[in-house]
Amino acid sequence: QLYNAFPLVMRWLPGPFRKIFRHWEKLKCFVKGVIAKHKEELSLAESGDYIDCYLKEIKKCKGDPSSYFHEENLLCSTLDLFLTGTETTATAIRWALLYMAMYPHIQ
């Protein structure tokens, strides 16, 4: 919550959250690299995945200034999908372990 209220101040304060910023930047660089690779190999005839479809929509809406299809939104939505999937998996594993601890005879 402090970061949302004071983003410029938080970047200068020491603390463990600095490590989170470094990891976040690495993750963003990784996803940017994946997007760049998809742009190089983009085929208009077929769509292989989410990024391909989004890149095609960017090309379709290139002249429209009111369009939300641009690379920054692609980066953010891809990161959201990745993090949401990671959280879902972690939660499922946590519940499975809790269930096995509560009912060891079912294991």
Automatic annotation (TrEMBL):
One GO process term, biological-process aspect: xenobiotic metabolic process
Cofactor needs: heme
Alphabetical list of InterPro entries matching this protein: Cyt_P450, Cyt_P450_E_grp-I, Cyt_P450_sf, Cytochrome_P450_fam2
SUPFAM superfamilies (UniProt xref): Cytochrome P450 (SSF48264)
Superkingdom of the organism of origin: Eukaryota
GO CC aspect terms: cytoplasm
GO molecular function terms listed in the Swiss-Prot or TrEMBL record: heme binding; iron ion binding; oxidoreductase activity, acting on paired donors, with incorporation or reduction of molecular oxygen, reduced flavin or flavoprotein as one donor, and incorporation of one atom of oxygen
Keywords: Iron, Metal-binding
Family recorded in the similarity comment: Belongs to the cytochrome P450 family.
Listed name of the protein: CP2J2 protein
Organism: Nothoprocta ornata
Source species taxonomy: Eukaryota, Metazoa, Chordata, Craniata, Vertebrata
